[in-house]
Amino acid sequence: MKRLAWTAPLMFAAVMATPAWAQKGETVKIAWIDPLSGLMAPVGSNQLKSFQFFAEQFTKTNPAGVKFEVIGIDNKLSPAESLNALKAAMDQGIRYITQGNGSSVAGALIDAVNKHNERNPGKEIIFLNHSAVDPDFTNSKCSYWHFRFDADTSMKMEAMTTYMKDKQDIKKVYLLNQNYSHGHQVAKFAKENLARKRPDVQIVGEDLHPLAQVRDFAPYIAKIKASGADSVITGNWGSDLALLVKAANEGGYTGKFFTYYTGVSGTPTALGQGGDGRVFQISYQHYNMGGQMEKWMAEFKKRFNDDFYTGSVIHIFSGLGEAMAKAKSTDPVKVAAALHGLKYQSFSGEVEMRKLDHQLQQPLYLTVWTKTDKQHPYSAENTGMTLKPVKTFESYISSTPTSCQMKAPG
Predict the structure, then answer these.
(1) DSSP H/E element including 288
(2) Does domain 154-283+363-398 bear CATH number 3.40.50.2300?
(3) Quick check: 320 pLDDT over 80?
(4) Is this prediction's pTM over 0.70?
């Protein structure tokens, strides 16, 4: 009996000493690798602030009890610079990286992370993709160590063209995109989806231009007007979209724009009061979602005098907190296994990190640029304009199939 009396407390102490709470109080460092210089610097600066802001928010509330810290590294929008940044992060012992601006950069990082993890067991790194939306990353180039928290190009185009197919005033479409993998994919999926859903729609022009190098889009607007296009589909972002819509306003183009990134830094200001009812965005969030998101956005704007628009940041911290609590660890191998197929609550309801390809399944929202009102009060970049919801596409509608053959380690 004496033996049993001693055994129970010892067993209890042993259980309490197991890794069940091993991660509590730990600092989890995330290396943010994106541009802080060049034409896309305003986007990068906004997103770094977003990551650091939500690292603070989720340090207070995550179920794993960890502290999040974000280290910003300028990659100058260059794959080569990004690989240097990855090495610098690894030299600091950082095991989590995030990036999203430029699928060419993301592709280089996926390859580098795969090679590193294969050659360095016990020092694995996880890539948390916040905005690089090339579908290949969750298809032919999918990786167990890569998790995408944005919706990919094919998902967004599926939703966008589902809306466009019912609009009989859309008859002639111009495709204008950046000349790298994301721009190519936008054009590819636009043509495929329209051919399937609206074979009567004509593609009257198509252009690809250098990424983050064009300062005057007036010649492109002249070509669009000459083509007779009533609508433009563009995956442009940052300065490439802001300068495009500025040129459209100045050049008197009155057709519709169907975009992915109207809400991104600089574009609201470039639009100003122009484009009312003619500029659409497909995204996984919008300015007027209400609830906790409304409070976060108000606090972000008060602190930084800037708009918060990269909701995938919230998906990342929500998912990491849940995965680390489930894994009872911050070890990337255990956390990756917990993230694999994880369903959890985020700002848009329940989302799921699909096991097949590590593509987050989530609702998408089509919105239109218009004046603020009582129901939609958020003023983007203090323009008096906002993105008003037009249609919601639940996860099962926006989801697209995958060809990924996921290879788990070991």
Answers:
(1) none
(2) yes
(3) yes
(4) yes
